[in-house]
Amino acid sequence: MKFFLKKAPYLLLMSVIPLLGLVYRLLNANAQNATDLITPIDKMIPYMPIFIIPYILWYAYLAGFLVYFCFKDTKVYLKTLLLLSLGELACFVIYFFFQTTVPRPSVEGNDFLTILVKWIYTIDQPYNCFPSIHVQTTFSIMLASLHIKNKHVINHILLHIGGGLIIVSTLFVKQHVIFDMVGSMFLVAFIYGFTFELFSLRVPSKSKAVYVKNK
């Protein structure tokens, strides 16, 4: 119980994620002259509604593994939140100056998977595509997990297989194109080196204060 009470306050820092989501909504508007980055390879990738399941499970994936990181290694958790936040802010800057769009297929039918796809298409306009927030956040979790020691094999498998399915799902449900996916990975790789290598996060044992200090 003492362990939980000691770690729980750090979970409040996850509130930055929904706050960043509000900024995303402001930028997710009908943009004139939005660029289409679709390639011939993207046209060859089939639309597969089954992938809407891992696409939606992204929400649980992100929250679940952040909580896991917090209780497993608070320092890694804090660095991961910094990585996620800086990555999203970088995406927002790109969206503001370089808005892209993705052509969506005509979705017909009333089966469960199609209803889910239609729901996602309704709440998320086909803008804010390059880089992909889905890929950026998922790949951030996957890289950050490399710093978690003594992971259970099941957690390790779920984290990487689940993350991989989420990333490719963005292509199969036609929410993103290959450039969106690759661009996100390059962005995360750059910021990852900055947050995990150039900075040292210290978590005081007798204080709830958290600070960042240059090495």
Question: What does this 3D model show about the protein?
Answer:
The chain is mainly alpha-helical. It has one domain. The protein has helices at residues 2-11, 16-27, 40-44, 52-72, 74-97, 112-123, 133-144, 153-172, 178-197, and strands at residues 35-36, 100-101, 199-202, 211-214. Strands 1-2 form a two-stranded parallel sheet. A hairpin with an 8-residue loop joins β3 and β4 (211-214). α2 (16-27) packs parallel to α5, α4 (52-72) packs parallel to α7 (133-144) and α7 packs antiparallel against α8 (153-172). The radius of gyration is 18 Å and the shape is globular. Mean pLDDT is 90; it is low at 205-215. Keywords: Membrane, Transmembrane, Transmembrane helix.
Brief sketch in words of this structure:
With 215 residues, this protein is mainly alpha-helical.
Spans of 5+ residues with little confidence (pLDDT < 50)?
205-215
Strand-pairing-aware structural class: mainly alpha
Q: Tally of extended strands? A: 4
Average pLDDT, rounded to a whole number, is: 90
Portion of residues within helices: 55-70%
Count of separate DSSP helical elements: 9
Shape: globular
Whole-number count of domains: 1
Distance between the termini: 34 Å
Largest sheet: 2 strands, parallel
Bin the strand percentage.
Answer: 5-15%
Order of strands, main sheet, comes to: 1-2
How large, in whole angstroms, is the Cα Rg?
18 Å
Q: What is the N-to-C order of secondary-structure elements (H for helix, E for strand)?
A: HHEHHHEHHHHEE
